[in-house]
Amino acid sequence: MTASRSSRHLAFAGVLLTAVTGAALSLGTPYVAPGALPGALGGEDLAGVVVTELRLPRLVLALVAGACLGAAGLVLQEALRNPLAVPEMLGVSSGAALGVAAPLVLAVSIPAAVQPFLALGGAGLGGVLTLLAAGFGRSPSAVLLTGAAVAAALQAALLVLMVLADQLDLQLIYRYLLGSLSARTWDDVAGLWPWTAVAVPALVLCAPALGVLRLGDDDARALGVRVRSARLVALAVAVVLIAPVVAVCGPVAWVGFLAPHLARRLRPELDAVGWLPWSAAWGALAVAVADLPARLALAPVETPVGAWTALLGVPVGVALTRGGVKR
User: Fold this and answer.
1) Could you report the per-residue pLDDT of 170-195, keeping only the tens digit for each?
2) Rounded to whole angstroms, how far apart are CA atoms 203 and 180?
């Protein structure tokens, strides 16, 4: 029964990925028929350049960014024993955005290669402040409330800095803070691979401890887990997953909330280790799906993908959460 259910979910995810891929590469101006896509890839005509150099890297970036955010959301929720513990509510996303946006506001020239490090520093600062103020997660509700306060403080600091920005910079910063995949290229995709190569092995190594942390601090200690160290490691892994994505795309909201809940709802028989790949998969599909209306709904004007992930993700995530509570 479990194998059959897994096969159905794999088939559904595969069909959805195929449909999203076809729509992302075909739709827009110029329209490229699905049957013409294989010939357009690598072509030197207008359709080939648009598909290969604009739409394909944007799709790949959406999938990679969504997978990182989905996996990071599950890590945070499991490590802190709170299904509402998402990067946006723990100061992680706000800290990363502050680290990247502050040099833009202050007109400080920063090389693109340095931006992920600034995002890492800001995200780490926000997450560590939350853990320290909440007593390293002894109370799941305290973590959420403290994280919301830290996120609000970091956002307030960014708003104060934005008063200094001129009008053109302000428009760029607003678009960045809502999360956008506009005008992203293969260079942006390549910038994420080194961080992903570091985060994925660390994610695999720390995944077994996540299920133990869910049992509570006392039970985890009885099983030989150093709770504070394990939570710091989980936070570090989540920061390495989130910060480079925020540096490239901005804070794409609520993917880290929606994807883990989808993974748990659709595969309730699994544990944290089993949910991780599913959470990454649903996060990737969520961002790829949301980028379609972001690119096409008001064409030729593009809207930020973060606005669509929030618009679509929050009601679906709340419905999944309520359904889980009722069960």
Assistant:
1) 777 777 778 888 888 899 898 888 88
2) 26
Tens digit of each residue's pLDDT (9 = 90 or more) over 142-169: 777 788 888 888 888 888 877 777 766 6
Identify whether the C-beta of residue 128 lies closer than 8 Å to the C-beta of residue 235.
yes
DSSP annotation of 87 reads G
**Is 301 buried (19+), middle (13-18) or exposed (0-12) by CB count in 10 A?**
exposed
Do 230 and 109 touch, CB atoms closer than 8 A?
Answer: no
Locus of tokens 């992203």: 184
Handedness of CA 44, 46, 47, 51 (dihedral sign): positive
Preceding amide of 116 cis, omega within 30: no
CB of 96 closer than 8 Å to CB of 283: no
**Largest distance between two CA atoms of the chain:** 65
Q: Tokens 């992680």, residue?
A: 92
pTM of the predicted protein model: 0.88
Is the sign of the CA dihedral 283, 287, 288, 292 positive or negative?
positive
